[in-house]
Amino acid sequence: MDVAAKAYKGAVASELNKIGLRYEDLLNSSKPSVEEALALADPDVLNGRMRRLKRASDLCVKQKRYIDYAEPLPVEEVFKLELSHDVDKIEARDFEFQALNLHKK
């Protein structure tokens, strides 16, 4: 599975590089845990995320690629985690809260 995982990771990285996004930019911001993590995130993280999303939508409308304008990001940068740890902690907190309140049902 490691060989397939590395190949898949490379394929995802190349597709994200075409439009200049990071893997975390694909998180659904309407999900409560992601929404809370975004609210607690550093303003620079939010600003960068919004710029990447706007740039990607602009490039898709123009049918252009990010690689035409800038060098592709290294794989480490594409999969850089800035929000995932916070999202995991929030989901664990919510799960613990639900588990502790099972007796109320």
TrEMBL record:
Coiled coil: none annotated. It is a peripheral membrane protein. It is found in: Mitochondrion inner membrane. It holds the Pfam family UCR_14kD. It comes from the Eukaryota. GO terms for biological process: mitochondrial electron transport, ubiquinol to cytochrome c. SUPFAM superfamilies: 14 kDa protein of cytochrome bc1 complex (Ubiquinol-cytochrome c reductase). Belongs to the UQCRB/QCR7 family. Keywords: Electron transport, Membrane, Mitochondrion, Mitochondrion inner membrane, Respiratory chain, Transport. Its main location: mitochondrion. GO terms for cellular component: mitochondrial inner membrane; respiratory chain complex III. This is Cytochrome b-c1 complex subunit 7.
